[in-house]
Amino acid sequence: MIPDNAPKEPVTRNDCVSSDPLNVRSQNNPYTRILANVVREHRLFSVHWELTYRCNAICTHCYLDVLPPNASTPDELTTDKARSVLDQIVAMGVLYLTFSGGEILVRRDFFEIAEYARRKRLAIRLMTNGIFIKSQVADRIANLHPTGVEISLYGADAATHDAITRRPGSFERTLRAFQLLRERGIRTVMKTPLMRENVRQMYALRALASRVGATFCCDPTITAKDSGDTRPLNHRLTYDDLVWWLRAEINADERTPLPTIDATQRSCGIGSNSLVIDPYGNVFPCVQTRIPAGNLRIQSVQEIWSSSSVFRELGALTW
Predict the structure, then answer these.
(1) I want to staple 187 with a disulfide (CB 3.0 to 4.6 A). Which of 54, 148, 169, 313 is the partner?
(2) What does the pLDDT read at residue 19?
């Protein structure tokens, strides 16, 4: 049983944390001590699994070369192989599992995989664009009892959002997803990558998140595609945009004490307690660090985690 006061997932570079309401960084928090032991013992604790690179949106800033929803993808890990991988990570003591894509709901076997993960008592988090979430899908998500569902929203109005997804009508469908999940008591996070197109809508986006009962999370990080295509960088904030955003953040959080970070602790779990699996079984240390450590078609998770020089070298880093 996960205690109510435990954080829902270890903090990573891509998580939005504007404060520390659960006192995670305090040395007096039992969870902090547990996590410190996990890092010290180099135990795998958290897995981020990209189930597919197929997607029902074609977002202008995406770092992935996504495929159409109906694309043939014979190299994706099968349902049976996915169950085997889940068995392996459970045996290793993994607690947290994040499913992302592409779009997770494009996979017809998504719920088979996710329901198996829950039967294995993994705490799961979902990342989705919400477009496919209707009442029946929301019911099945609720039955998973996820720690949270993170839904991407790219603008405070349909014109902005739909121009970024390049899918007319996606704004309304995504808002519907927030409402359906809220009705079922599911925690949601509105995740907004800040770009030139939407940064000046930040106050409106915060208000929209409040209206739909979601936590608002924004991030100015826009990267090139994993393939090396630099076109997404055209959407990065300009210098003036970045200054405006920083001032807006300071004004929004002026009553919230700035969090303190223990200089003796690593602020990133790369190489020490987490890994990423792509749809084809490739294992990486981080979503933003695509250094291959192995492949689950020919190796076990334990073998890759214990023997890969990638994890050994990254796990030894100090800063």
Answers:
(1) 148
(2) 36
pLDDT above 80: residue 261: no
Distance (Å, whole) CA 58 – CA 273: 32
Residue 112 located in a structural domain: yes
| pLDDT at res. 27 | 55
Is 92 inside a domain boundary?
A: yes
pLDDT of 171 over the 80 cut: yes
Type of residue at 30: P
The predicted model scores a pTM of 0.86
98 pLDDT more than 70: yes
pLDDT band at 14 (very low <50, low <70, confident <90, very high): very low
Q: What is the CATH number of the domain that holds 272?
A: 3.20.20.70
Pairwise CA distance, residues 177 & 159, whole Å = 18
- Number of domains present in the structure of the chain: 1
Task: Read off the pLDDT band of 59 (50, 70, 90).
Answer: very high
Sequence-distant (≥ 6) Cβ neighbours of residue 272 within 8 angstroms: 39, 42, 266, 314, 315
